[in-house]
Each structure stands twice: as structure tokens, then as C-alpha cells.
Design goal:
Blueprint (H helix, E strand, L loop, with lengths): L25 H11 L4 E2 L12 H18 L4 H9 L9 H12 L8 E4 L1 H13 L5 E7 L3 H10 L2 E6 L7 H13 L3 E7 L13 H13 L3 E5 L15 H4 L5 E6 L11 E4 L3 E4 L4 E4 H10 L7 H13 L4 H4 L1 H21 L9 E2 L7 E5 L6 H11 L1 E2 L1 E2 L12 E5 L5 H20 L19
Parallel strand pairs: 1-13, 3-4, 3-5, 5-6, 6-7
Antiparallel strand pairs: 2-8, 7-8, 9-10, 11-12, 12-15, 14-15
Helix pairs in contact: 2-11, 5-6, 5-10, 7-8, 13-15
């Protein structure tokens, strides 16, 4: 009697330690919740609204980019075909158009050679972190709470992270300075600080102009790079935008990370890095922009960003005169309206919330609101929320490196229709009211939770 050979298996302890980090399971868990409760209204995704995009637009944008290659760049049909169907330059084929857009929209002056076009923001982040963090002594400062894509990337790359708690106005320059000094006093090197100045994910906080200047001064004083991420800057509720750190930076301390996912076409998966800082080679006596070094890293990851995806973005840039702020007016109004509905709905449905320890911020724009509650808002409560009340949100603890954020949650307004926002707020208010009314000291969350009819 023969027996089947034993299949080869791997020991988890022999894999990279980051694979056991709970941060890497956050999105999987939220997607699983959404799949299990499809009728629940979800405030969890930070995705742009699908109604703002159409697949047919991609064909029009590619056609516009082809005309640009033919008439402005003087390429033949064979050269155009090669540019779109073959491997291309690692740094990208739309760098010149991006430079125009940055000048028009952000007042950022850069050269095409200062830019690398990447496969989304995440590759921009990975290549930047890999190039900058050379030894175990190099430390990345991050706001607390922080977008999990950043802390997760650092974990995968084996980079040590030091959190800097956000204040009511966002990341404070004095706190960054103290964290940098503490790292240096302990023998480490504070290499860079990740920051989202406009409507941070997950808190929704926005830095004032004064705080931006203060943060740049700290970067200069502590020899610190600022990794500026700006996915939400176009989406203000009042139409008033603030200058990016990169546009204010006179000393070269800002590496600007961007993405077209929110502002152009999410499915194209195109991002970029603006990194013109000179890298000196003492052996040869030459200098190259940091972007060239990032391109070398990228060449070992994705080789190049798909040309067709770049053509979609390039065509949209051309269609709008390389002015994305104008192109996103409709989106800004849509997200601003949804934010108004959420904030007004919370005030209406929870009129005595502050007296009961329920508080939320009032962002000037963006996608996210942080909601504090006087009880634990964990995965167990989220299960009840989805099943019994028909509403999904993200535990704020998912964005903390330690044990913080257990009494808060993140709400995102970007993916929902206005009617869904209205109904979702009502369902969320019922959950909060039910939880507030429960006797203190009762273990667990599950006792006598009502089931909303809308969630069946």
C-alpha cells in the first residue's frame, strides 16, 4: 500500500517577520467584513467614488496622448507604437507633462530628470524608503495615527519606525524635533519623516501655513528629509488650498510623493516621486539627482511603469492643460458635499454626543473624519456594527503602531453616494447610542444587540 508523498511545507518562523505583523492584515480583514455583509453601508474604503470615472475616458485620453506624441513630439507612427506597447524608460514617459502640472497646480519647480513615474504611490514609497534607509540605525518618523501603507512598507523593508503623536492640528513641529533628538541621543539617525499636510489619512487633520514653515525649519535644523504625501490636496470644502511643503522648501528637504489615483484615474495605478536632491559620488566627483537612484531601485522591482497607464494619465493632463486642480472641481464639490452630510448628520443624530464623550473633528476637506467614543471600538464591535446595525467603519487602532486608538474610529466619505452617507450616519448613530446605553462593566459587546432591518 503506497502513501502519497508529504507535501512540502514552510515554517512561518522562517519567513520574514513582517508577515506576522497585524498591520498587514488590516485591509484583508476589512474586505472580508464587506464581503460578508454586502448590504451594510461601508465608511471604511478610502477609494475615490466610481461615479467620477468612466472606462470610455481611458480610450479618449490615450488618443489625446497619441496626438501629443505625433504633433508636439514629432514621433512617427512606428515610434508611437513602440512607445505604447514596449518596455519604456524606467523613469517614465510623462515626466515632462507632470512637471508642467506641478508648476501649474502646486507652484513646484522641477525638471523631468527629478521625477520617477511609479506604479502607484506604494511603489513610490517603497523605492524611496529602500534608497534612503541604508543601515539599522536609520529611523523613519511617522505621525500617530498613520496610514498603514507606510508603516506596513517599513515593516516589510525592516525599517525602524518611531511614532510622533498627532495633536489637534496634526503633526506638530516641536514633537517632531523632540522625536528626532531622542532618536539621535539613543544612537540612531532620524533619516526622514512621513507627513500628509492636507487632510491626513486617517485623522483628516490639516497643517496651517505657520505649522508648515515650522516643520520645514525643524527638518533643516535636524538634517531630516520630509516625505510629503499629497493625495487629497485638491479636495477642499471651501476651495481654499494651502501651499505644499515642497513648494515652500528652499533647502531641498522635501521628497514629494504623489499619485493620480484620487485625481485622475485610479485603475491606471500611476504615481510618482519628485526627488531632485543631488547625490554626490566622491569617487567620481559627479552628482546625480536622487530620482536617478530611485529609478535604479525601481528597475529591479517593476522595470518600468506600464506605458498604456501613463498614456491614460498623460492624455488627461493634456486635455485639461496640465491643470488637475481645475479638472477636479467636480470631484471636490462631490466630496465636500458628502463631508457636509456626514458632519451635519452626526450633529443631528447625536445632539448630546459631547456630553457623553463622543467627539469628532471637522476637516476642511479630504475623505476622512476621526470619531472618538467612550468605549472600545475594536474588531468585535465592528462585527456587531456590520451584522446588527448595517454599517462598517475602520477601527482607529488599525493605524497605530502600539496600543493606541482603541477608543476611536475612522469614517471615510469618498466611496459612498450621498443617500448612503445619510443612511449610514443614522445607522452609526444607532450603534453608538446602543453602546452608550449598555451598563458599564458588562464584558464583551454582544449582549442584546438589536438588528436593524436595513442590514438583513
Amino acid at each position: 500500500m503506497s502513501t502519497a508523498p508529504r507535501p512540502f511545507a514552510l515554517d512561518r518562523t522562517a519567513l520574514h517577520p513582517s508577515l506576522s505583523d497585524p498591520l498587514l492584515d488590516v485591509m484583508t480583514f476589512l474586505n472580508e467584513i464587506v464581503d460578508r455583509f454586502p448590504r451594510a453601508i461601508s465608511f471604511a474604503p478610502g477609494r475615490p467614488h466610481e461615479g467620477l470615472f468612466a472606462p470610455a475616458d481611458a480610450e479618449r485620453h490615450i488618443a489625446r496622448y497619441r496626438r501629443y506624441l505625433r504633433h508636439e513630439r514629432g514621433l512617427s507612427e512606428n515610434q508611437i507604437t513602440r512607445a505604447l506597447v514596449q518596455y519604456g524608460p524606467t523613469g517614465g514617459i510623462i515626466t515632462e507633462l507632470l512637471v508642467r502640472a506641478l508648476r501649474h497646480d502646486e507652484g513646484i519647480e522641477a525638471r523631468p530628470e527629478d521625477v520617477v513615474i511609479t506604479v502607484g504611490f506604494q511603489e513610490a514609497l517603497f523605492t524611496t524608503l529602500r534608497a534612503l534607509f541604508a543601515t539599522e540605525d536609520d529611523v523613519l518618523l511617522v505621525p500617530e495615527p498613520c496610514y498603514t501603507g507606510v508603516t506596513g512598507a517599513a515593516a516589510v523593508l525592516g525599517i525602524r519606525v518611531v511614532p510622533v503623536p498627532e495633536g489637534p492640528r496634526g503633526l506638530d513641529a516641536d514633537d517632531v524635533a523632540r522625536a528626532a533628538q531622542a532618536v539621535r541621543s539613543a544612537g540612531g539617525r532620524p533619516r526622514a519623516c512621513y507627513v500628509v499636510p492636507d487632510f491626513a489619512n486617517p485623522s483628516g487633520h490639516r497643517l496651517t501655513l505657520t505649522d508648515r514653515h515650522r516643520l520645514l525649519a525643524v527638518a533643516h535644523r535636524h538634517d531630516l528629509l520630509l516625505l510629503e504625501d499629497n493625495p487629497y490636496g485638491f479636495f477642499t470644502r471651501d476651495g481654499r488650498r494651502r501651499p505644499t511643503l515642497r513648494s515652500l522648501d528652499a533647502r531641498g528637504h522635501v521628497v514629494y510623493l504623489g499619485s493620480f489615483a484620487k485625481s485622475c484615474f485610479p485603475g491606471a495605478r500611476v504615481g510618482y516621486v519628485v526627488a531632485g536632491q543631488p547625490v554626490h559620488d566622491a569617487a567620481t566627483g559627479t552628482s546625480t539627482p536622487l530620482a536617478a537612484e530611485l529609478a535604479r531601485v525601481k528597475s529591479m522591482i517593476t522595470v518600468n511603469t506600464p506605458a498604456v497607464s501613463q498614456a491614460v494619465i498623460g492624455g488627461m493632463l493634456l486635455e485639461h492643460g496640465c491643470r488637475l486642480a481645475t479638472a477636479n472641481d467636480r470631484a471636490a464639490r462631490f466630496y465636500g458635499h458628502n463631508m457636509d452630510l456626514l458632519l451635519d448628520g452626526l450633529a443631528t443624530a447625536l445632539p448630546r454626543a459631547a456630553d457623553q464623550g463622543v467627539r469628532w473633528n471637522d476637516p476642511d476637506g479630504g475623505f476622512f473624519v476621526g470619531l472618538e467614543v467612550p468605549f472600545i471600538a475594536d474588531r468585535e464591535l465592528l462585527e456587531i456594527s456590520a451584522e446588527r446595525f448595517g454599517v462598517i467603519w475602520t477601527p482607529m487602532s488599525s493605524f497605530h503602531t502600539g496600543a493606541g486608538g482603541r477608543d476611536a474610529l475612522r469614517l471615510s466619505i469618498s466611496y459612498l453616494d450621498p443617500d448612503q452617507v445619510r443612511e449610514g450616519v443614522r445607522r452609526l448613530a444607532r450603534l453608538i447610542t446602543w453602546r452608550l446605553d449598555r451598563p458599564t462593566g458588562v464584558p464583551g459587546h454582544t449582549a442584546h444587540a438589536p438588528r436593524t432591518g436595513a442590514a438583513r
